[in-house]
Input
Amino acid sequence: MSLTRRALASLAALVPIGSALRARAESTTVSIPMERGYARGPYGLVHYRDTGKGKPLVLFHQAPMTSRQFESVYPLFAAKGFRAIGIDMPGFGGSDVTPFVPKIEDWAKVVPPVLDHLGIKQADMVGHHTGSCVATEVCLQFPSRARNLVIHAALLVTEEERKARLARVEGGEKAFVYKEDGSHLTDSFNGRKRMYGADADPKLITRYVIESFTGSGPNWYGHNAAYVYNHTEALKKVKHRTQVMSNSGDMVNELTQRAKTLRPDMSYVELPGGNVDIVDQSSQAWVDAITKFLSA
Output
């Protein structure tokens, strides 16, 4: 059994200026028919967004975002003939949280129920940051459901680096304090603004912050799952045609570049500038790089 609802969404297409020195997303209004609905997954309801027509492509968001992360690129994928489907990971956005601390392997299991609900046998898998781990794991657990794999950011850490990053999750995200005066919201806004970089749009940063607080699970579930996951060993096992992507300003660019040595048979693309918000900062270039690979 599944629940669905039809919505006509007016999506803000965030158009990048295109300079590595000045990466700011400028918004214009683009309206496309979007389906938003729910499928029954192994841990409850799974929320998705769906452009409805074209070659199916599943988008996996970074933590602690939601499928709204791809708001600027849904219409761009649709214009290229792709049916873009964004899934909220359990505990984020509108998807029910797992009754336990999840791993990437657990999140991958929500994908087949969504595809079944939409009547899709096979789709391309596209992930960004934490979402890259999920997309990779889908290819390993459910190889027949994936056509091609595209990952933007590969978390190819050493064991020492893994421990250090999990320690940061423990001391930072797990230790997050909701303050009585609400100043944690201001602090979150300012931190997110610094992360975005120069010329950050306050409206966009507000959306990012709100997204991070809307889930039914703890924020730290995302990065904890990402760094517990052994993306290096997983990527070694992938048999699907794969493109690894990064951007020069990404905080894990150095980790991602290791993929060129780990899997020299995989395509590698690096966009200039930007940071973890490259999807909004260079929307068209991001979509072009992905669709060029998927259409080849």
About this structure: The CA atoms of residues 162 and 227 lie 6 Å apart.
